[in-house]
Amino acid sequence: MNQLTDVSLLPAAFGIVVVLGGVLILKLHPILSLLAATAIVIAMTEPGIHQSVRQGLWVQAELKKTPLTEQTEELIAGLRSRVPEFPRPATGTQIGRSVGEAAAKLALPILFASIIGCGLLHSGAARRVVGSITSVAGPQQLPIAMSVSSFVLAIPIYFDSVFYLLVPLAKAAPRGTKTSYLGLVLAVVVGGTMAHSLVPPTPGPLLVAQQLGVPVTSMMFAGLLLGVVTTLTGLAYARWISSRLAVEPPEELEDSGTEAPSETEAGPNLGISLLPIIAPLILLAIGTFADERVWGVSLCKDYAAVLGLSAVMSLGLLTKFVDKERRGSLVANAVADAGVIILLTACGAAFGSALRDSGIGIWLTDRIEGQTASTMILPMAFGLTVLMRAAQGSATVAMLTSSAIVGPMIAAGLPFNPVFLALAIGCGSKPLPWMNDSGFWLVGRLSGMTPKQTLQTFSVALTLMGMAGFGVTWLVAILTTLG
Hints:
By secondary structure, this protein is an all-alpha fold.
């Protein structure tokens, strides 16, 4: 163990430097940077360390098959006496195997989510949802309505597309109301960005849940609850800053081009429009709480199958409300977009696997032991994610790197549910967004804000939301240990 802790930090440090240098200095695509870093970490990790880590993971997996009350020293000793050998494969083989394992778990949910988003956007269903929410809320509650719309749509739709869809409405809405344009823009931002980091099937929280062994349904429902707190925090700041900072919408700001039903065309009604979003939540809730002996309940526990059903519903919307000539190209674009995200996420998982095998988790655990480790792992995960986010800009890359580093520490035992660790990492991906974040420029350019104004609004709002979400997560995690 001493040898392991003495040398395991260096490969991980080099790997993180390669990721940051590739993205920031060489301007490489994150996929290439992650692959290069993975190869370097594997090459620098001694075979004996790889063997020790893999054997430890095998013992942990076998222990999970036994109830906690029956896990004795004799059982653990017996497992260790028959632990198999885990020789390190060739670098290319190991990378390919890690990418394949991650893709097997994540590819279908991400693909189906992309198809769901395509159907909602181009059939006019997304517009119907937004229009219904804003009409019910009324002019005085328009920021809340826009934020709720953004949060709901960002669960199956990527944030960029949600912002493209809603920012023209923010320009048009203030006419005849007391709501400022800036307040509505930020309402869209604070809702959509938190769903992006907390609620699967968005790739970041989906991968974190997978790496930490958190059930996806638990991550989804916990992310929804925490999203209420963080979004309200963002809305409070949006209201404060919009009363002190004047921002005018750019003249060229036009509709995003996502299809809404014309005056002569009957679009989907609200119930049909909501179905692809609400159905997965209902089915997953049934799978979580219903008796699995009832026919069909086991299918509701299959996250990919549930999203697949929702994707079929979205394809039905496209079939009904989009002409045949355009339908095929829209779905093809959605599949292509999903392919890039799947590859990025799988390469990130491979990098995480290499970091885990380098022994960095054991290195951290050996230095933060016992109750201190269980108490400090949440702020450590949050702080590490914040640093990675600020350094290279991508929230997804920051989340997967942090979860790979702190994930092995779960083996030392946590007094709280690991979903709190996943939430802390999600909240850590929000603070300190600046010029190296593509979302920073997207929001600034489309809303007409200068870089200084974007820092004052977008950057500060996300930082406050991340800190508030982490504070609530840490507090609730501590309270659960007291019970």
